[in-house]
C-alpha cells in the first residue's frame, strides 16, 4: 500500500501556534463563560486609539479614493510620514522609497527574514525572544540560534555571547530593544558595541523598534543606525503604530531597509496581500504626524502599573524580578519555585506553574517556554490598575500557601 498523501504541508505543519494568543484566547473563553479571569497574556494597550486618529479614519472612509487599490508598498504620504517620524524619533534621515508599509509589525517581521534568509542560514536570536521570531525564521528556511541571557544579566546578551554563537553560516542578528517579552532595554554603549560587531563580521541586523516610546526611569531609546550609521546597507528596521498609539487592531507596520531588499519584499507583498487597508493607512498618517501627548499619558499609566507589578512580584518567595525599563511586560524568574508542590501539584516547569495559576486562581500568565527556556513567566501590565493588583494578589496568595 502507498503511504497516505500528506494533507497539510510540512512547512506549515511545523509552525507552533502563538503561545501568547493561545493564553489570551483561553482567558477570554473562561471570561465569556462567566469566570472572573484576569489575563496578563496579551501584549496590547488597554487604552482606546486616540480620538484624532479615529476621526481621520472616519473621514478617510468617506473618501472614494480610499475605496480602491493603492500601491502595494504603501501610500506615498504614509511613507513620507514614516521618514519624517524616523528623523524626529531616531535622529537620522531615510528615503521614503526605502519604506515598505505592511499589515502590522508581524508581516514586516516575516518579510524581513524572507528577504535575506536562505536555507542553511543561521539567525542569532537573543533569548528570551518574542514567540513569532523563530517561526518566521524557520518559514524563511533559516535556523534560529538562541543566545540566552538570564535574569542575572537583566536579559541583555553581550557581544562575547554573540561572538561565541557566530559561525560561517551566521547571516543575521535579531535585535529587539525595548524587548518583548522581558522589558529589557540595551544602553547606547551596549547597542553600539553590538552594531560594530555586526558590521565587522558582515552580519545583517534586523532591529525591531516597535516599543521605542515606552521607556521608564533612565532608559533611553538607542537606534542602532543612529549609533552605527555604516550599518545602513545591512540593516532592516521594523516598526509600526500598534503599541505606541494603541492601534493593535488597525494592522499598520513597516520595514525600512536597503533598496534591493525593500524592492524584493515589496514584490513579494504585491503577490501576498497587496496594499494595507487604506483607511488604516490614513489613520497611521494622522498618528505619525500628530502630537505624542496621548502617548506620554499612556506611558505614565504604564509606568505606575509597572512599579506596582514589580513590587508585588518581588514579595513572592522564590521569584526574582529584574526591573523592566521598557515596553509593558514584567518577566520574573520563577526558577526558585520549580520542584515545589502547589495545591497538590508538583511544579516541574514554568508551563506547569502557569497552568496551576490559571486553574486554581483564574489568572492567565504566559510561561517562559513560549519565549525560550523554562523557568520564567511573562505578565503584561497593559491592563487596569485594579485588575492588575487583584491578579498579582491572587498569585501571591496561591504561592504563599
Automatic annotation (TrEMBL):
<dbReference type="Pfam" id="PF00155">
    <property type="entry name" value="Aminotran_1_2"/>
</dbReference>
<feature type="domain" description="Aminotransferase class I/classII large">
    <location>
        <begin position="36"/>
        <end position="395"/>
    </location>
</feature>
<dbReference type="InterPro" id="IPR015422">
    <property type="entry name" value="PyrdxlP-dep_Trfase_small"/>
</dbReference>
<protein>
    <recommendedName>
        <fullName>Aminotransferase</fullName>
        <ecNumber>2.6.1.-</ecNumber>
    </recommendedName>
</protein>
<keyword id="KW-0808">Transferase</keyword>
<dbReference type="InterPro" id="IPR015421">
    <property type="entry name" value="PyrdxlP-dep_Trfase_major"/>
</dbReference>
<keyword id="KW-0663">Pyridoxal phosphate</keyword>
<dbReference type="InterPro" id="IPR015424">
    <property type="entry name" value="PyrdxlP-dep_Trfase"/>
</dbReference>
<dbReference type="InterPro" id="IPR004839">
    <property type="entry name" value="Aminotransferase_I/II_large"/>
</dbReference>
<dbReference type="InterPro" id="IPR004838">
    <property type="entry name" value="NHTrfase_class1_PyrdxlP-BS"/>
</dbReference>
<dbReference type="GO" id="GO:0008483">
    <property type="term" value="F:transaminase activity"/>
</dbReference>
<keyword id="KW-0032">Aminotransferase</keyword>
<comment type="similarity">
    <text>Belongs to the class-I pyridoxal-phosphate-dependent aminotransferase family.</text>
</comment>
<dbReference type="InterPro" id="IPR050596">
    <property type="entry name" value="AspAT/PAT-like"/>
</dbReference>
Amino acid at each position: 500500500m502507498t503511504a497516505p498523501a500528506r494533507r497539510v504541508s510540512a512547512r506549515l505543519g511545523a509552525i507552533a501556534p502563538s503561545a501568547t494568543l493561545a493564553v489570551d484566547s483561553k482567558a477570554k473563553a473562561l471570561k465569556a463563560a462567566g469566570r472572573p479571569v484576569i489575563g496578563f497574556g496579551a501584549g496590547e494597550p488597554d487604552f482606546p486609539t486616540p480620538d484624532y486618529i479615529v476621526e481621520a479614519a472616519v473621514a478617510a472612509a468617506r473618501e472614494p479614493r480610499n475605496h480602491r487599490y493603492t500601491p502595494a508598498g504603501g501610500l506615498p504620504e504614509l511613507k513620507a510620514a514614516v521618514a519624517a517620524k524616523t528623523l524626529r524619533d531616531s535622529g537620522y534621515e531615510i528615503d521614503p522609497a526605502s519604506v515598505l508599509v505592511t499589515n502590522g509589525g508581524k508581516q514586516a517581521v516575516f518579510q524581513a527574514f524572507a528577504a535575506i534568509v536562505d536555507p542553511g542560514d543561521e539567525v542569532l536570536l537573543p533569548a528570551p525572544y518574542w514567540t513569532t521570531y523563530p517561526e518566521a525564521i524557520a518559514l524563511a528556511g533559516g535556523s534560529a540560534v538562541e543566545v540566552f541571557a538570564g535574569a542575572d544579566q537583566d536579559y541583555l546578551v553581550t557581544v562575547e555571547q554573540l561572538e561565541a554563537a557566530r559561525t560561517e553560516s551566521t547571516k543575521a542578528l535579531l535585535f529587539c530593544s525595548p524587548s518583548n517579552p522581558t522589558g529589557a532595554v540595551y544602553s547606547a554603549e551596549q547597542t553600539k558595541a553590538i552594531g560594530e560587531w555586526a558590521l565587522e563580521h558582515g552580519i545583517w541586523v534586523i532591529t525591531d523598534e516597535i516599543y521605542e516610546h515606552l521607556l521608564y526611569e533612565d532608559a533611553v531609546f538607542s537606534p542602532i543606525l543612529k549609533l552605527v550609521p555604516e550599518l545602513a546597507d545591512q540593516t532592516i528596521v521594523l516598526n509600526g503604530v500598534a503599541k505606541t498609539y494603541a492601534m493593535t487592531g488597525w494592522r499598520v507596520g513597516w520595514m525600512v531597509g536597503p533598496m534591493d531588499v525593500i524592492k524584493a519584499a515589496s514584490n513579494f507583498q504585491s503577490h501576498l496581500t497587496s496594499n494595507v487597508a487604506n483607511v488604516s493607512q490614513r489613520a497611521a498618517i494622522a498618528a505619525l504626524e500628530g502630537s505624542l501627548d496621548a502617548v506620554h499619558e499612556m506611558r505614565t499609566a504604564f509606568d505606575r502599573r509597572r512599579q506596582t507589578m514589580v513590587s508585588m512580584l518581588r514579595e513572592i518567595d522564590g521569584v526574582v524580578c529584574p526591573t523592566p525599563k521598557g515596553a509593558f511586560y514584567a518577566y520574573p524568574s520563577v526558577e526558585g519555585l520549580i520542584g515545589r508542590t502547589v495545591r497538590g501539584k508538583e511544579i516541574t516547569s514554568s508551563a506547569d506553574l502557569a497552568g496551576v495559576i490559571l486553574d486554581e486562581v483564574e489568572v492567565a500568565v504566559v510561561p517562559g517556554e513560549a519565549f525560550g527556556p523554562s523557568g520564567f513567566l511573562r505578565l503584561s501590565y497593559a491592563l487596569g490598575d485594579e485588575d492588575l493588583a487583584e491578579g498579582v494578589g491572587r498569585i501571591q496568595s496561591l504561592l504563599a500557601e
